[in-house]
């Protein structure tokens, strides 16, 4: 189905990278976008050309998420139309190399933060009778990602929560509120700019590196036409689901995955030159 005309949209982690690209694409599509991020100054700068609506937000803070949802609902006559949980952090390397603080932070931001944002948005949307939560997951939420185990675990949790919550809404008779998961391949954002020589990040480079604008464009289409799960590119979604269905095969192919990831890192390094912080494709 197609959603109603754009209204207020909230994007978390919107100071840069994919979040900023999604906010810009939604703004161009007619949404009034409230950009949020932990970095108040950076998100205000990102919001300036997009209507200037921004708020600092720690997605782990339930009260702050609820306040942002309420503000967004008041910001447009149609209320809160869309909430995009984009904020996330990546750590790489074997799981036993991450200390407890690091593991907790990844899970708190990527999983619990998105869960908190989802529930804050749903509180408003259920009362309105309409709305859409779009959770940015990852292909790492569909299959175990060597070298990104804690990150992958947090994304698996978010995917399961999202689909289960969507089913709960339907079982409760709520038809006008949607939950979608966008699962993209590796994206050339600051999250990966310094990972070109990181052996722990090989899984993120096994496919074709995506431009943030391409993922943002798909997010806008998904916002208009909700679907439970969308992978980008589609063929990569089919590939990782096959590996997830046959874990012994996935383990046997680990050397192939490693080689493909290293080749992807070298390919990306040739594209961007010696300074990996230059965000071009």
What report would you give on this structure?
This protein is of the alpha/beta class. The chain has one domain (about 10-270): Rossmann fold, CATH 3.40.50.720. The protein has helices spanning about 15-30, 40-45, 60-75, 100-130, 150-170, 190-195, 210-225, 235-245, 245-250, 255-270, and strands spanning about 10, 30-35, 55, 80-85, 130-135, 175-185, 230. It has a seven-stranded parallel beta sheet, with helices on both faces. Helix 4 links the parallel strand 4 and strand 5 (about 130-135). The protein is globular, with a radius of gyration of 18 Å. It starts with 7 loop residues before the first strand and ends in a 9-residue tail after the last helix. GO terms for molecular function: oxidoreductase activity.
Question: What's the helix and strand layout?
Answer:
Layout: E1 8-11, H1 17-28, E2 32-37, H2 40-47, E3 54-56, H3 62-75, E4 80-85, H4 100-128, E5 131-136, H5 149-171, E6 177-184, H6 190-193, H7 212-224, E7 229-232, H8 234-245, H9 247-252, H10 254-272
Parallel strand pairs: 1-2, 1-4, 2-3, 4-5, 5-6, 6-7
Helix pairs in contact: 1-7, 3-4, 4-5
The structure class reads: alpha/beta
Fraction in helix: 40-55%
Q: What's the β-strand tally?
A: 7
Order of helices and strands: EHEHEHEHEHEHHEHHH
- Overall domain count: 1
Outline the biggest β-sheet. Answer: 7 strands, parallel
Radius of gyration: 18 Å
CATH class: Alpha Beta
CATH superfamily descriptor: NAD(P)-binding Rossmann-like Domain
Relative strand content: 5-15%
Question: Which CATH architecture would you pick?
Answer: 3-Layer(aba) Sandwich
How would you state the average pLDDT, rounded? 93
Name the overall outline: globular
Low-confidence region ranges = none
Ends: how far apart? 34 Å
């Amino acid at each position: 189905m197609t959603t109603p005309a754009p209204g207020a949209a909230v994007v978390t982690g919107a100071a840069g990278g994919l979040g900023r690209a999604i906010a810009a694409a939604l703004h161009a599509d007619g949404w009034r976008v409230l950009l949020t991020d932990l970095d108040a100054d950076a998100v205000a700068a990102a919001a300036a050309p997009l209507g200037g609506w921004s708020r600092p937000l720690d997605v782990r803070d339930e009260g702050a998420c609820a306040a942002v949802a309420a503000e967004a609902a008041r910001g447009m006559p149609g209320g809160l139309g869309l909430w995009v949980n984009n904020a996330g952090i990546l750590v790489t390397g074997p799981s036993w190399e991450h200390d407890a603080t690091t593991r907790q932070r990844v899970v708190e931001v990527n999983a619990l933060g998105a869960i908190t944002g989802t529930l804050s948005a749903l509180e408003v949307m259920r009362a309105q009778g309409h709305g859409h939560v779009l959770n940015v997951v990852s292909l790492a939420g569909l299959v175990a990602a060597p070298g990104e185990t804690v990150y992958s675990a947090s994304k698996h949790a978010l995917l399961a929560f999202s689909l289960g919550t969507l089913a709960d809404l339907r079982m409760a008779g709520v038809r006008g509120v949607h939950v979608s998961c966008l699962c993209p391949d590796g994206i050339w954002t600051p999250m990966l700019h310094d990972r070109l020589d990181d052996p722990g990040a090989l899984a993120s480079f096994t496919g074709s590196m995506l431009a943030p604008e391409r993922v943002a464009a798909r997010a806008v289409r998904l916002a208009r036409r909700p679907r439970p799960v969308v992978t980008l590119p589609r063929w990569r979604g089919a590939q990782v689901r096959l590996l997830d269905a046959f874990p012994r095969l996935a383990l046997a192919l680990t050397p192939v995955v490693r080689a493909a990831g290293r080749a992807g890192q070298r390919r990306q390094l040739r594209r961007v030159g010696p300074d990996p912080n230059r965000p071009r494709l």
